[in-house]
User: Fold these one by one.
Assistant:
Number 1:
Amino acid sequence: MARVANVSYGLTMTSWQQSARAIRRLFWGFLGFVALAIALIVYPMLLVDAASAGRDPALLRARAFVDKRCPAQYREISTRMWGAGLRFNALYGNCRAGDGRDQHVWFFDRGRFLGTDAAKSSHWIIGAWRDDKTIAFLYVLYRPSDPECCPTGGAASVRFRWTGKRIKRLDPLPPRAFAPGVAVGR
């Protein structure tokens, strides 16, 4: 067998090649995040069939509550985390921003408003999973250098549990993005 010598011929990686490698890593990381987000969005869709959710009087009351607070021209509210017939439910989505970055979660007990996830809005919220007393959301995280379109900070899962009397947040809510001193935020 012939031996092949390990010769580099003095070739080094140029800065554009290093940049291309970094961009590829960022792209594949983001693609993985998007695949996970899509999977987490599809699962809750299986929880409620659209016909039964549309006739749920608690959902109709909850939607009316949110509709009064969010202008129709910007409103994009999701019912994906609504469980028809369950006591504890949530609606989430964009309320007032034309760019979709005024995201909130509204919690309800049989259609009666209980509260929101945070005093101030988030950039991007994804419904993750739920059971009868706990609902989890993913808060997409932005670094200070991220444009609105392209977050690179990952996501934080935050669970909210209904105790029968109040909503208890089980995980810390990430800080707001782009605030002074915040490395990654919602």
Note: The mean pLDDT is 83.
Number 2:
Amino acid sequence: MGGGDGAADGSQDAAQPAEEARLERQLTLLIRRAFRSLWTQSYGPEGDLDQHNFPLLLVLAEEGPMRVSEMARYFRLDKSTVSRHLSRLESAGLVETRPDPTDGRAGLLHATRRGSARVRKIRAARREPVKRVLSAWSAEDRAHLATLLERLNTDLDEVVAQALR
């Protein structure tokens, strides 16, 4: 009797845990499928990239040079872990260290041309299955999904940041 919104009888509150469980389940499936089938095959046959070091290369290619300590903070990882992954990327010729022009004692990590080209190739390969899956969706639905995912990621970043304070 409260206008059909369920608030007067408490049914909206009762439905919330079920909706949260449904969202958690769907996010889990999405993440599992993305890692297991959509993206793990797209790193290429070279064997020098994987789900652990590709994000580091991606950030350098898209956001520009950084110090190892900045990368560690960005990914909320130990500096030694980041250094290990970056060493593998450097050995593969995908990342290089150059002197920091503002502090000659420090080095800045840069994606090489080869590294940036690999990022473009991998991102294009990752888009293909998504394009196939969403091909029957309207442009409006695809845009709405992108908007909601952006909002979710922004809100998740904020929750993580608050937890670290």
Note: Strands lie at 95-100, 103-111.
Number 3:
Amino acid sequence: MPKKPAQNPSADGAISKADTPDSKSLPQLPAAELLSFLKQTRGVQTWTEKEMAKALKIGLPEAKQAIVVLELQGYIEPAGQTGKWRITEQGDLVSGSKSPRFTRQSVEQALDELRHRIKAVNEDSNADYKITDAVAFGDFLGDAARFQAAEVGIRLMPKKPEASTASAKQNRAELAFLKQLGGKTALLHVERYEEWMRSRSHRDLL
């Protein structure tokens, strides 16, 4: 079993590029996207490359390459001779997954309330930001009995020109806004939007 790191590495540092036969001809999936799949399958004992391809909306060649990378990192392993895969303890750790404990009703209610807050922000002329993208993804997209918190990616567009300039102060302001938008609930994990979030399976909240 691979050694546990002292702390959870960042997505960029968690997965290094693998030198596979197809690595030069196939696009490299973002590390965060691969980790989102590992997290989503926490409650599933085994899964296939076809199920990975469906979840991430990629072709089978890309899924096969991703599996090679994840296996080399020690995050997944073959489930015997079944042709299926399972996540290792190391994979659970690096993906930040938690034991599924929420009901579908509670997750859906939290997402519905967030959708209303997003609408209210965009209708508020005094708000500091306009929300231009909002997507939710995670194991709630499946048919399990219990789920982890829904992952939500939010893209903010500052309304004031000076706020568009990247700075430590602006970064803190955006993070504070996202935290407030998410509300005081353990049912949602709100973070900055990234393009891969829309390219994988998701639910649009706008």
Note: Helices lie at 11-14, 31-40, 49-56, 60-72, 89-95, 104-123, 168-182, 195-199.
Number 4:
Amino acid sequence: MLSLVLAALFFTGIHLGIAGTAMRDRAIGILGENGYRAAFAVASIIGLGWPVVAYNRAPYFASWGMLEWWRPIAIILMLPACLLVVIGLTTPNLTSIAQEGRVEQPPQGIVRITRHPFLTGVALWALVHVIGNGDVASLVFFATWAIVALAGTVSIDAKRRRLLGGAWEPFAAQTSIVPFAAIAAGRNRFIPREIGLWRWAIALLATRRSSASHHSLCRFGHIPCMPTARLFARDAMRWQFTG
């Protein structure tokens, strides 16, 4: 359990203490852009792999226990979580890595719902498992993902604001962190066809794969969903958690 706690602190530290902060800017000043990216990539690999391994080996200590009534709710919530993650990963977005050149382009597709679809989906996925698993190891593991994902939305906004200055504000005004907030406020409107049928199809297949993983590859309780965890970890390396 100690290893899992330390891994969670390391994962949180590199993403909230370094990425998107002034410390990142100082590190780039010392190491250069390429040097920083290489160092952060190594730290990210460690930060993603260590918690998964530690969680896999952590002893089982029940907290509130498995919540049978939560299972149908979890199945329902996993659909928007997967939609946000998969569609977010495949949609060009100013908040994504190396997409600063899109600053003049209006938000489209899933970005109209939230400017951080991937992180919002990860946070929802993690919170679903925090509630449903009911053991200490799962609480540490999934709460860490939820905290880093939710705080990451604010961190990325701050990084883009520092980098782009006033050019960031029109995009921020048309979008929101909280899903549908900008649409509800009348600052934007959702156009489903912008997402594209192929993104919807991939997202639905990913949802089905996640459900199948839970039923056929995982045992509930101690290690409830490691295939899904690895899937999100792999995608995180390709997306927002790149410093």
Note: The chain has one domain: 62-237.
